[in-house]
Amino acid sequence: TADRTPLAQRSPEELATYLERQRRAYAALTERGLRLDLTRGKPSTAQLDLSDALLRLPDGVTDADGVDVRNYGGLSGLRELREMFAELLWVDPDQLVAGGSSSLTMMHDVLVQHLLHGGVDSPRPWRDEDKVTFVCPVPGYDRHFTMLASYGIEMLTVPMRGDGPDVDAVESLVRDDPSVKGMWVVPTYANPSGSVVTQEVAGRLAAMPAAAPDFRIFWDNAYALHHLTSNEAKSADILSLASAAGHPHRPVMFASTSKITYAGAGVAFLAASRENVAAYLGHQQFASIGPDKVNQLRHVQFFGSAEGVRQHMVRHREILAPKFAAVDAALTAALGGLGVAEWTRPAGGYFVSLDVLDGCAARVVTLAKEAGIALTPAGASFPHGADPRDRNIRLAPSFPELEEVETAMAGVATCVALAAAERLSD
Ligand code: PLP
Question: How far does CA 177 lie from the centroid of its chain?
């Protein structure tokens, strides 16, 4: 069995032996000519196949209210689909909009509406402020950060912990600085940490005093239903918490079926206070006469009920869980006890967050690339792509076949070990 002594505690000679062994393992790895990709948080073909009954739906062209779904209209989405997902997201159907295929587009629309017009409780449009700042839990979702960067919005980071964003840090950033207009939260099985925001943290985020009267929490519940175990996390009820705390307009919730049915042809949702929803639709009416209701009806018929969605997610879990287990197994086998890496064992979502020794993430990604294993660029999970400690790597095991995940992760582990041995031998 392998020596499990932490590398940092080994003598220079032992370390030199270890480094030499990792160099040989890495040379053998590069000789295999692999071409594997762990960058993409996409559903696999087998997962997409689960929803192929959609391709033969809808059956008929009218919804329960007799509306012809082929025609214009119905900006807030089909009532039946809103009722189904309102149950799953623990919101009131009146406060839920079913829109197009992308929740990211809805987030972008809400952001731009606030910049151009302000929100229901804004003293002025955000574009008329000297500066707009968002609080960004890190590691986080790169597209959240690039969206803000594209509008020149400044980003202040706070650590993401197992129970959600470091709420002490958030409270102190938000309390005194009126330029802080919003924050991102991926509450359930966060990208990439897998963290789940607890009811307590959600309660504090909902209730904390904010210098900006129109402070917004972009509550991106992209993985609300994406459990990897039978112990299914229930997302905190942010709308009720915020409302009870006297900040009803603070949260805007987003979700979609991108990783439930089809990632390019699902349905996206927005939920917020009635006033926020009215403001959103009030702006949206100038951009759209109505969403793709044919697709919405197809989804209603495919799922049948909220319970149908839950059962469908179990089939995803059966495909995904072994891949996540393979990531953990490969890292544990090669690196367990060595003190050179820590990684998450998420109970849901699409990612594993891997922290290597400080200053080693970019090196690991380069080593992997040269061995034919594509990893997300180091730093991608931080604003402006800059991880101040150069230690975080986001792993996405959903898309490759199980065997490919096993092979790729054994390779990644070799790269982590080699980079660590190099660093400690410096
Ligand atoms: N939000 C998070 C946290 C994600 O990880 C992703 C996709 O990776 C999205 C949103 C994209 O959502 P959609 O496909 O609904 O635009």
Answer: 27
Where does 95-153 show beta strands of DSSP type E?
A: 96-98, 133-138
99-142 pLDDT, tens per residue?
Answer: 999 999 999 999 999 999 999 999 999 999 999 999 999 999 99
> What share of the chain has pLDDT > 90, as a percent?
99
CB of 255 shorter than 6 A to ligand 1: no
Biggest CA-to-CA distance, the chain: 78
Q: Does residue 102 have its Cβ closer than 6 Å to ligand 1? A: yes
Q: How far is the CA of 299 from the centre of ligand 1 (A)?
A: 19
Instruction: Map out the domains of the chain as residue ranges.
Output: 7-47+310-425, 71-304
Q: If you measure from the C-alpha of residue 224 to the centroid of ligand 1, how many angstroms do you get, rounded to a whole number?
A: 11
pTM of the full structure? 0.97
Instruction: Look at the alpha carbons of 283, 286, 292, 297 in this order and tell me if their dihedral is positive or negative.
Output: positive
**From CA 327, how far away is CA 334, in angstroms rounded?**
11
What ipTM is given for this predicted complex? Answer: 0.99
Q: What share of the chain is helix, strand, coil (3-state, %, to 5)?
A: 45, 15, 40
- Are 223 and 350 spatial neighbours (Cβ–Cβ below 8 Å)? yes
Q: Which two structure tokens, joined as six digits, stand for 194?
A: 């897998």
- What stretches of 245-391 show up as alpha helix (H) in DSSP? 274-284, 293-303, 306-335, 361-370
Strand 352-356 relative to strand 341-343, pairing = antiparallel
- Is 7-47+310-425 a CATH 3.90.1150.10 domain? yes
pLDDT (tens digit per residue) in 317-337: 999 999 999 999 999 999 999
Instruction: Check if 398 has its Cβ closer than 6 Å to any atom of ligand 1.
Output: no
The class level of CATH for 71-304 reads alpha beta
In three-state secondary structure terms, 161 is strand
Between CA 114 and CA 149 the distance in angstroms is 15
Distances from the Cα of 397 to the Cαs of 195, 233, 269, 322, 405, in angstroms?
A: 17, 21, 26, 10, 6
